[in-house]
């Protein structure tokens, strides 16, 4: 069978996503490889599918097995459940298994039918791995895949000490190819992965980091609850995550939402283990819609239908923001990422890092880049991929507040710009954004009064403009070339030649501002209208969702292991009438058509035509 046939028969997909075919080819060619694809890009398939290709010709053994190293038990479990539901023989070995479960896995392994084995890093290498390696040597290892490979790097956002042992894989599985997979975009982490794993002349495939289905917005935090209401109203009954900076805020917000009738629960490291697990499971099993959480939540969260991620405060780096926001829309359907932020977030990080002795050059740079993103008035998609060193085609992306023209033009931009430039000039072109903003807003900070800047004519000149907005203007003037920033550690603002012309009234500029929140009590009534719902019978979709939940409960797996939303929407649009038509639906391979087909066809047949 060709890999295209396997894709159709087992996954029910008709085409490979970008770079999947190339990644699979590297495995089949037994070349070490590093594959970087964004979240939702379809990395799992790259190391799962080759296990179904007959390897006997190459490995010279009857039934060799593919090993997948995965950092989290929950992640392993989901993937194995998913594979089994598709009819692929897969098993896992980890410390969370009961002795019965372990015996079942080992039996499957000895029987020789198992194609994929998921193991925790410490099982594959390290002191306790001898038995496992002996077992593997009798079976023959087709290849070793390392999922979430960035965990091996101290430069990554999620370094895991147990991953460090993986350097020994090379010797432990001599003669076998190693394949690393990650969504982490920074070149330093990528290099580190190759070095630490000792990859030999690896084939490297790096996909586009852009996530076109995510709509990015940045909102100045003004009346957060109200701003949140507006977002929640767009997503009634849909799954979402709200990230807060403190545990207290998590608890308060979760309680407030629950009191408002929203199915929400808290998650943070201060909750006891049982509660934390229960809340996480409730989210995965669709018993709740909204998880209110600190950064402690997220790694290994495979729920693919997360339709929104709200940040109630900026994280300390753009990497982290991208990770967390990236948990939205893994199924490829439209989803929203809103960053609600104020300068206080950055001051807070700074003082936190300072008191922890971690206010290093790199921490400062990371935070400044985050701040820059928050204040920028340009395409968010471009800004994000640009940060990771990639470029996007010119033109509006159609999925960010800037390109959707949600930002408003400021009134009298010339006058505004002249006031800002004057403040830079009068304070001697020796100060950073924070100080200039303080002077313009008439804030008598220590620094301001010590320099006598409270006596300047520009002091308090823009008293009524919120600080976040003012910073935004300064950043725009910098991006527009009217101001320049020099110095790395504490950059100061200088007026450029173009800025001098603007000051003299010989040049023009345009400035934008974030819309201030409008009070509206309007609820979403009636059907959803965005393009991804075109032709979808929404009543039927909801019935299918309920059926999926039943099927999942009956099998003790999370609903997304059964089907993704994409499949449900297609079913509710195409309304297949028989098994043959069902085979044409994305995400329904042969095994799932057999197992779930009758129930689905019944439900569709009984649904009144719309
Ligand atoms: P990643 O691990 O890269 O974040 P996943 O492997 O979880 O991404 O895949 C994301 C989603 O895309 C999953 O629902 C998966 O089934 C789906 N998917 C993967 N490859 C394809 C494909 N070729 N066609 C359609 N859907 C796909
Ligand atoms: Zn855009």
Brief summary:
The protein is α/β, with parallel strands linked by helices and 610 residues long. Helices cover 43% and strands 13% of the residues.
Task: Explain how this protein is built.
The chain is an alpha/beta fold and 610 residues long. The protein folds into four domains: 3-206, P-loop containing nucleotide triphosphate hydrolases (Rossmann fold); 214-406, P-loop containing nucleotide triphosphate hydrolases (Rossmann fold); 409-513, Winged helix-like DNA-binding domain superfamily/Winged helix DNA-binding domain (Arc Repressor Mutant, subunit A, Orthogonal Bundle), CATH 1.10.10.10; 531-606, DNA polymerase, domain 1 (Orthogonal Bundle). It has 27 helices and 17 strands. Strands 3-4-2-5-6-1-7 form a seven-stranded parallel β-sheet, sandwiched between helices. A six-stranded parallel β-sheet has the order 8-13-12-9-11-10, sandwiched between helices. Helix 15 (343-355) packs antiparallel against helix 16 and helix 23 packs across helix 25. The radius of gyration is 27 Å and the shape is globular. The model is unreliable at 57-61 and 518-523 (pLDDT under 50). Residues 13, 16-17, 20, 37, 39-45, 304, 330-331, 564 line the site of adenosine-5'-diphosphate. Adenosine-5'-diphosphate (ADP) is lined by residues 13, 16-17, 20, 37, 39-45, 304, 330-331, 564.
Strand content: 5-15%
Tally of alpha and pi helices: 27
CATH homologous superfamily label of the largest domain = P-loop containing nucleotide triphosphate hydrolases
Tell me the name of the CATH class of the largest domain.
Answer: Alpha Beta
Helical amount among residues, as a percent range? 40-55%
What characteristic shape results from the CA principal axes? Answer: globular
The Cα radius of gyration reads 27 Å
Low-confidence stretches: 57-61, 518-523
The major beta sheet can be summarized as:
7 strands, parallel
- How are strands sequenced across the largest beta sheet? 3-4-2-5-6-1-7
Domain count: 4
Structural class: alpha/beta
CATH architecture of the largest domain: 3-Layer(aba) Sandwich
**Bound ligands:** adenosine-5'-diphosphate, zinc ion
Q: State the end-to-end CA separation.
A: 41 Å
Care to count the β-strands?
Answer: 17
Query: What integer is the average pLDDT?
Result: 89
What's the CATH topology label of the largest domain?
Rossmann fold
């Amino acid at each position: 069978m060709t890999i295209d046939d396997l894709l159709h028969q087992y996954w029910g997909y008709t085409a490979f996503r970008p770079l999947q075919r190339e990644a699979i080819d590297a495995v089949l060619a037994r070349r070490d490889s590093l594959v970087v694809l964004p979240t939702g890009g379809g990395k799992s398939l790259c190391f799962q599918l080759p296990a179904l290709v007959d390897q006997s010709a190459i490995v010279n053994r009857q039934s060799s097995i593919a090993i997948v190293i995965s950092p989290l038990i929950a992640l392993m479990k989901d993937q194995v459940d998913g594979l089994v539901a598709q009819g692929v023989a897969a098993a896992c070995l980890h410390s969370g298994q009961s002795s019965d479960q372990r015996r079942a896995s080992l039996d499957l392994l000895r029987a020789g039918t198992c194609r994929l084995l998921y193991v925790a890093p410490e099982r594959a290498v390290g002191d306790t791995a001898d038995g496992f390696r002996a077992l593997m040597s009798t079976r023959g290892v087709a290849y070793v895949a390392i999922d979430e490979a960035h965990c091996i790097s101290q430069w990554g956002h999620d370094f895991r000490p147990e991953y460090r042992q993986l350097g020994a894989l090379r010797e432990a599985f001599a003669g076998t190819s190693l394949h690393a997979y990650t969504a982490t975009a920074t070149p330093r982490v990528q290099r580190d992965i190759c070095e630490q794993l000792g990859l030999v002349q690896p084939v490297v495939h790096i996909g586009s980091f852009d996530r076109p289905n995510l709509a990015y917005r940045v909102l100045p935090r003004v009346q957060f609850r109200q701003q949140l209401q507006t977002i929640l109203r767009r997503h009634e009954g849909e799954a979402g995550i709200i990230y807060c900076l403190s545990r207290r805020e998590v608890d308060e917000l979760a309680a407030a939402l629950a009191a408002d009738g929203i199915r929400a629960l808290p998650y943070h490291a201060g909750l006891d283990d049982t509660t934390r697990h229960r809340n996480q499971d409730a989210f995965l099993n669709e018993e709740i819609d909204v998880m209110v959480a600190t950064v402690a939540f997220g790694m290994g969260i495979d729920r693919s239908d997360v339709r929104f991620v709200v940040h109630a405060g900026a994280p300390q780096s753009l990497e982290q923001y991208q990770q967390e926001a990236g948990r939205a829309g893994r199924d490829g359907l439209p989803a929203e990422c809103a960053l609600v932020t104020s300068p206080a977030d950055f001051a807070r990080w700074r003082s936190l890092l300072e008191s922890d002795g971690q206010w290093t050059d790199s921490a400062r740079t990371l935070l400044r880049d985050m701040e820059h993103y928050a204040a920028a008035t340009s395409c968010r998609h471009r800004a994000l991929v640009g940060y990771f060193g990639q470029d996007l085609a010119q033109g509006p992306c159609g999925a960010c507040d800037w390109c959707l023209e949600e930002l408003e033009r400021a009134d009298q931009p010339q006058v505004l710009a002249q006031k800002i430039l004057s403040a830079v000039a009068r304070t001697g072109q020796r100060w950073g954004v924070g100080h200039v903003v303080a002077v313009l807003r008439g804030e008598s900070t220590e620094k301001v009064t010590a320099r006598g800047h409270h006596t300047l004519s520009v002091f308090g000149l823009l008293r009524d403009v919120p600080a976040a907005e003012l910073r935004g203007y300064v950043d725009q003037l910098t991006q527009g070339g009217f101001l320049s920033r020099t110095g790395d550690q504490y950059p100061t603002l200088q007026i450029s030649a173009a800025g001098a012309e603007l000051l003299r009234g010989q040049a023009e500029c345009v400035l934008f501002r974030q819309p201030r929140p409008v009070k509206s009590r309007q609820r979403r009534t009636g059907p959803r209208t965005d393009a991804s719902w075109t032709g979808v019978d929404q009543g039927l979709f909801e019935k299918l969702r309920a059926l999926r939940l039943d099927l999942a409960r009956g099998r003790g797996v999370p609903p997304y292991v059964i089907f993704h939303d994409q499949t449900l929407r297609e079913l509710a649009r195409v309304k297949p009438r028989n098994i043959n038509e069902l085979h044409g639906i994305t995400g329904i391979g042969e095994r799932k058509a057999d197992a779930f087909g009758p129930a689905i066809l019944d439900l569709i047949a009984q649904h009144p035509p719309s």
